[in-house]
Amino acid sequence: xxxxxxxxxxxxxxxxxxxxxxxxxxxxxxxxxxxxxxxxxxxxxxxxxxxxxxxxxxxxxxxxxxxxxxxxxxxxxxxxxxxxxxxxxxxxxxxxxxxxxxxxxxxxxxxxxxxxxxxxxxxxxxxxxxxxxxxxxxxxxxxxxxxxxxxxxxxxxxxxxxxxxxxxxxxxxxxxxxxxxxxxxxxxxxxxxxxxxxxxxxxxxxxxxxxxxxxxxxxxxxxxxxxxxxxxxxxxxxxxxxxxxxxxxxxxxxxxxxxxxxxxxxxxxxxxxxxxxxxxxxxxxxxxxxxxxxxxxxxxxxxxxxxxxxxxxxxxxxxxxxxxxxxxxxxxxxxxxxxxxxxxxxxxxxxxxxxxxxxxxxxxxxxxxxxxxxxxxxxxxxxxxxxx
Length: 388
What we know:
Helices cover 46% and strands 15% of the residues. The chain is α/β, with parallel strands linked by helices. The strands form 2 sheets. Strands 3-2-1-4-5-6-7 form a 7-stranded parallel β-sheet, sandwiched between helices.
């Protein structure tokens, strides 16, 4: 029997927690499998104990990235041996350099290979983050070369890994669990409900992300300013699942430039800053909006695209290979740094019920192609091959 040790201790924001939340129930459903999951205390609280899934946690989450890395290299092998696991799934981009068992690495950070990201950091004069990303990228490259198998969430990123490291990565799409995503019928908190209630005939755009540079918020903010003129007298509202305030988002990304741009363009009344929305309530937010937009200039998979398609929202995405791989012909695409083309594309879809309905229908079909159950089965097939 496979005993899988999942090191998810570094899954603290973005796609990391989304991955763990969706994968653990499918691990628990496998009667031919035992799993031990190492998670952060906050993420651990979301799971009940299962007969075939055990949970471990590091108690001190206040330490820095370097300390966490050294701690993992020292302590995780001991935890693996103690659990008697025979396969390691490293879910945080960094591998154990001396794993006591065969290791599958999940590599999912395209920032390390993105010229646009490093150019962006230099323009913002964020030299500290530039250096930090370079150092982490080197550790990630060593990790790919240390693991027995490396798995990427898209073929586009798997190809990038091979160019970057010389190691062939396997592409296994992340999944989507419709029953899990839509199952929570808990009413929205009153403050969030008020922000989502419609008060007029308005075009509602949604972008699900905490604030960071590579999601390219500034292009989206500029597009909102242009879009106001294109759809008059109808109003436009952009809903964000973050706040453009210092300290309100994970990581060290500075929001001041985006907040100043909002003031400069006078689009403050067109932005609704929801703040972080709990994952189990996100489906309410999608269904309260009309279109999903993403101007990100780098991605490895982009879970919100699948969530938006499953919610019936037409998708307009920056023209990345990853976005085209995930959405195929269910979305419309625009150059990532062109607010003009973005505004024109949104306007065209918003003013054509036929185009909008066709995109919605195609998106629903495409969302059914993603399955966490299939993802877990493919990962376990790799585990079996390593054990043989």
